[in-house]
Structure formats: structure tokens, C-alpha cells
Amino acid sequence: MHLHWKIFTESEKEKSVLKVAKWFHDEIGLEADNILIQPYHKGGVTYSFNTELPTTEWSDSVYFVLALGQRVARGWQIFSSIEEELVAWSNKPNISGATNVQISIDRTE
Question: Is the pTM of this model over 0.85?
Fold first, then answer.
């Protein structure tokens, strides 16, 4: 099962975005793939990537993702029915330079 990450940053400089990204990767400790850096229409840049979850059971995956999210941000809001998918958003990342973080997993993947 894949965990999808999207980090919103203030900076438009790739070096600054990569510094924020490195901090996230160090904190979560999972290999990333499908890395994508894109300008955000409201300013700044988004940094998106996927990580493979070490769990296969849905309830374990939801718990793991929320616990992992708490390593990098606080004040998470859930915007989905966690019976089928988990989409969570925080505007309180633990590192300066990042403004928001979105995490999501889909049970059907």
C-alpha cells in the first residue's frame, strides 16, 4: 500500500525545497519514489512523493500513517471516511519553510 505525501513550501528555490524535503525524509525514515516538484498556483512549490507502507492490514495502515504524520506535523484534520481512504491535512508542520502537509492512502490500491 502506498502513502502519498504532498508538502507545500513557501520557497520557489529548488535548493530550499530540497532542504525541507530532506528533513521530511529523515523524519519518516521510509524510501520515497515518484518524487515530483511543481510550482503551486497560490505561490511557492509543492513537493510530492510516495512511500511504501510496511503494513498490509487497513486498520494498521491508518494508525501507522497518522503516527508517522505526527512526526512531521501536528493538528491533523481528516477529510475522508477512513473506512475507504485516509486523507489528512495539517497546516502546522514541524519545520520552517513548509506551510502545509497532506497525506493520503486509498484502501483500494
Answer: yes
**Widest CA span of the chain, in angstroms?**
39
Task: Measure the CA–CA gap between 56 and 41, rounded to whole angstroms.
Answer: 35
Distance CA 101, CA 109 (A): 21
Query: Which tens digit of pLDDT belongs to each residue from 14-29?
Result: 888 899 999 999 999 9
Residue 109 scores a pLDDT above 90: no
Spell out the domain ranges in the chain: 2-106
Written as one letter, the residue type at 109 is E
Q: What is the CATH number of domain 2-106?
A: 3.30.70
What is the structure's pLDDT at 14? 83
CB atoms within 10 A of CB 89: 18
Average pLDDT over residues 5-15: 90
Q: How far apart are CA 72 and CA 82, in angstroms?
A: 20
No. of H helices and E strands in the chain?
A: 2, 6
Place of cell 521510509: 30
